[in-house]
Automatic annotation (TrEMBL):
It holds the Pfam family UPF0004. One of its GO terms (molecular function) is 4 iron, 4 sulfur cluster binding. This is tRNA-t(6)A37 methylthiotransferase. Belongs to the methylthiotransferase family. CDKAL1 subfamily. It is a single-pass membrane protein. Keywords: 4Fe-4S, Endoplasmic reticulum, Iron, Iron-sulfur, Membrane, Metal-binding, S-adenosyl-L-methionine, Transferase, Transmembrane, Transmembrane helix, tRNA processing. It is found in: Endoplasmic reticulum membrane. The gene is Cdkal1_0. GO terms for cellular component: endoplasmic reticulum membrane.
Amino acid sequence: LLENPAEADLWLLNSCTVKNPAEDHFRNSIKKAQEGKKKVVLAGCVPQAQPRQDYLKGLSIIGVQQIDRVVEVVEETIKGHSVRLLGQKKDNGKRLGGARLDLPKIRKNPLIEIISINTGCLNACTYCKTKHARGDLASYPIEELVDRAKQSFQEGVCEIWLTSEDTGAYGRDIGTDLPTLLWKLVEVIPEGAMLRLGMTNPPYILEHLEEMARILNHPRVYAFLHIPVQSASDSVLMDMKREYCVADFKQVVDFLKEKVPGITIATDIICGFPGETDEDFQETMKLVEQYRFPSLFINQFYPRPGTPAAKIPQVPAAVKKQRTKDLSQLFHSYNPYDHKVGERQRVLVTEESFDSNYYVAHNPFYEQVLVPKDPLLMGKMVEVKIYEAGKHFMKGQPVSDGRVYAASITRPLAKGEVSGVTEEFRHTLRNGTNWKAHPSAEIPEKTPLSLWMALQLPWQQGGGGLKILSVSLALLAVLVMFYYGVMKTEL
């Protein structure tokens, strides 16, 4: 895999269909690839939702449930063929959750594992195009999710993010629910590691409030929940077909704030949805003023082609822009962390800041804390004293008498190293050794038979074939990383 796209023979482009700008960027990338005479393979929600778009004609496409066949599609595309795999995976007529969880992957951050717990959703929001691509709810079995978490911790991960279009709806299609999954995951989280929950819509969390409060109070679960409200007007919510009212949202937030002291509630707002009046928007402003959300995702409404909301008379662009500006000004008028200066906090260090001047950690409420750039802190849970606060972060200094927790004695994988393969198998790839020289080696227990057979072929042709194997395995792993990375941005 090449660092410089201009040197590549083929471009593999992943996509997101949540907003117009993301799709526009995808379209521009395709045009750039074609101008450079590159072979092109497309993946993600855009081609899955609208494969007959003119600008997609003649190009190979991997559907959102077919990412495990990326090597096959790339090989055929390089030969000059156009391949389209867009079908839904099923087992005895039942829709499956998507690609296997035990596929090889490359983590963008070796300390953080992102696990998709289900695909699709139960809602039919009038503005959303993602449903067209990902379809109805399909959940992964609890045992598969727990196994993936265990494997992650064995590879040195110290933080797990659960993600999906709607985590709160998990399990409704397979006879279980989110709290049941979370209690099983909590059992395998080692000391010094943390679990972060993904986005959940209000309707699917209401019936589990008591249980969710207990889980969010667990010392190895961040007291953080992302609950999109989108609007504080019931009439707008009805037009959106969000299936809840503002009182439902407030009930969830008020209950969790009471039962989980200090909890961080993040939310989303859409400004200028079709039919939104000035009075509707003022209700939204009042909601933000009341709760002063520390994390607020403000979105100016974009009509997505093919959605019901695109056919409704639109709010003038200037009005949408002004409402977005007004809400942004309100959000930036308060500082949620000023009162925490002087506190001692337990934080988990997992990343480097964008300016490379600090390491990034998070406290039990998933609030961002910048700490000194000391390599000994990375991947550790440490105690710090907060000495400064900004709008989106705090700064902390490690305390001399604080305890340091290491989530695992296992060395994290190196950046770019493939997850999900055995150590002996990894050694073979690194050293180019013929697999036949290791008669005791067995097929990795979790490797799909079809994938294993495909990987065996190069070895039968000598050590040089291992280069093909390495590239194929890395290619599959990179797409898995991109796939879950895009899901995260959608959420």
